[in-house]
Amino acid sequence: NAGVTQTPKFRILKIGQSMTLQCTQDMNHNYMYWYRQDPGMGLKLIYYSVGAGITDKGEVPNGYNVSRSTTEDFPLRLELAAPSQTSVYFCASSYLARDTQYFGPGTRLTVL
Amino acid sequence: AQKITQTQPGMFVQEKEAVTLDCTYDTSDQSYGLFWYKQPSSGEMIFLIYQGSYDEQNATEGRYSLNFQKARKSANLVISASQLGDSAMYFCAMRPQGAQKLVFGQGTRLTINP
Fold it and tell me: How many CB atoms lie within 10 A of CB A100?
């Protein structure tokens, strides 16, 4: 049982480039989430999904897109990367909305 | 809007001592959940303990306990018999009623001295 896995662990992008952060969970959880953590701060919700085919915006969705074609996978797409998107990105999952969210190891992204 | 406040940016504690990390929250919801997560220097977020707003007993998980005072809107984490491996950032978080997101505080950096 791997839990929540994220790839890559680290990435450096140039301004204007695009990339996809991958997230996979093997716990058959319905709910999946993307958060970002800026230096010295707590986490803020970018997008979440309540099941395959259903996604919705969180607090800070601008500059990102998501899709959820399967229960297991919830990729986060960055289009036209900007320095303000330099952050650590965490994927999380839970079985139900009221359940504990379990986090992946994070992706540290730097945009130069 | 819901808010979590952690007033201690950093704490230094001697090994084997007990430590209390403060967390206060602001909400008008009747039903909500409170969580504590640990973030070691390696960066991952590790779930520690959960308290539901309707739970009458304080939550406990091994050396962790949550001192829940609903009227004061506080949910302090107590770590008994601290260990060197407890050195990390600790985040208090709240799940508002009916919401999918967690609202996080800014964290407290705990350092355990030998």
Answer: 18
